[in-house]
């Protein structure tokens, strides 16, 4: 799978682009899409507002981590993996037995969006399984991505030449498209373009970007991890969604 969101929408962490500063290795979103299409004969491509797009192929799909895509009320979701408690979640959200994992995740996102205040970490924490997913809400221009706490499903993110955010479950795509400005999406974390990167297991701890340097002192790679020694002040989750979302600073964004 592949999802690319222009800089103003994706708002990738600035640290993600540090390894490729001054480098010509990263490519444009169109070139990255061409790389994806050249590797897959079967695919579904969804062109989104502002030049954003999401694409899915079942080629070389891991049967233990199937890929699926769903569109519900202008909300697009690519889901990779499985949920062990999908039956319980269907019942909780009032969905039919035929509802897929992607549909369940979209419904969980809509609870976060429509029934505020509702902490995003709690939405994902309720998901029991091996998964990675990307949601894009075209109505609100909201991006929401997450990966399970064990990092069971391959999930990479990176930065294109123009600063666009690139997400894929194929490291070859991000490596060829983003050069050194690609990294594993941190396990147990959520990324929202209005909030930044947070841990759903440790929501009150900051996420730190850790840079690796080569022998010449140049940044060769960046990865992200929870800093258990730093703590974000607790915020009373009362009032509207903006009350907690706008003040939950301290995360990487």
Describe it for me?
Helix 2 (29-39) packs antiparallel against helix 6 and helix 3 (86-93) packs across helix 4. This protein is α+β, with helices and mostly antiparallel strands and 253 residues long. The protein has helices at residues 7-10, 29-39, 86-93, 101-114, 120-125, 171-178, 241-245, and strands spanning 2-5, 44-47, 53-56, 67-72, 75-83, 129-137, 142-147, 156-159, 165-168, 182-184, 189-192, 196-199, 207-213, 219-226. A hairpin with a 3-residue loop joins strand 11 (189-192) and strand 12 (196-199). The model is unreliable at 235-250 (pLDDT under 50). It is globular, with a radius of gyration of 18 Å. A 6-stranded antiparallel β-sheet has the order 2-3-1-9-8-10.
What can be said about this structure in brief?
This protein has helices at 7-10, 29-39, 86-93, 101-114, 120-125, 171-178, 241-245; strands spanning 2-5, 44-47, 53-56, 67-72, 75-83, 129-137, 142-147, 156-159, 165-168, 182-184, 189-192, 196-199, 207-213, 219-226.
Estimate the global geometry from the Cα principal axes: globular
> Which strands sit side by side, in order, in the main sheet?
2-3-1-9-8-10
The proportion of residues in beta strands is 25-35%
Uncertain segments are: 235-250
How many strands, what sense, and barrel or not for the largest sheet?
6 strands, antiparallel
Calculate the mean pLDDT score and round it. Answer: 88
**Helix/sheet category:** alpha+beta
Number of helices: 7
Please count the beta strands (DSSP E, at least 2 residues each). 14
């Amino acid at each position: 799978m592949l999802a690319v969101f222009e800089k103003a929408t994706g708002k990738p962490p600035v640290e993600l682009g540090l390894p490729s500063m001054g480098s010509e290795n990263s490519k444009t979103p169109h070139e990255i899409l061409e790389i994806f299409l050249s590797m897959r004969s079967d695919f579904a491509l969804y062109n989104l507002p502002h030049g954003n797009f999401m694409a899915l192929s079942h080629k070389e799909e891991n049967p233990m981590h199937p890929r699926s895509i769903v569109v519900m009320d202008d909300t697009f979701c690519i889901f990779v993996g499985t949920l062990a408690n999908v039956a319980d979640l269907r019942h909780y959200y009032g969905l039919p037995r035929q509802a897929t994992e992607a549909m369940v995740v979209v419904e969980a996102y809509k609870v976060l969006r429509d029934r505020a205040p509702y902490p995003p970490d709690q939405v994902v924490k309720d998901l029991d399984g091996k998964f990675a997913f990307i949601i894009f809400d075209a109505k609100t221009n909201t991006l929401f991505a997450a990966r399970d706490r064990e990092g069971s499903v391959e999930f990479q993110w990176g930065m294109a030449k123009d600063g666009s955010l690139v997400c894929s479950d194929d490291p070859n795509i991000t490596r060829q498209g983003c050069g050194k400005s690609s990294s594993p999406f941190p396990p147990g974390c959520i990324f929202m373009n209005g909030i930044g990167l947070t841990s759903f297991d440790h929501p009150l701890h900051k996420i730190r970007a850790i840079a690796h340097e080569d022998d010449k002192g140049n940044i060769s790679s960046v990865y992200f991890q929870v800093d258990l020694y730093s703590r974000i002040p607790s915020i009373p989750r009362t009032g509207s969604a903006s009350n907690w979302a706008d003040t939950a600073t301290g995360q990487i964004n």
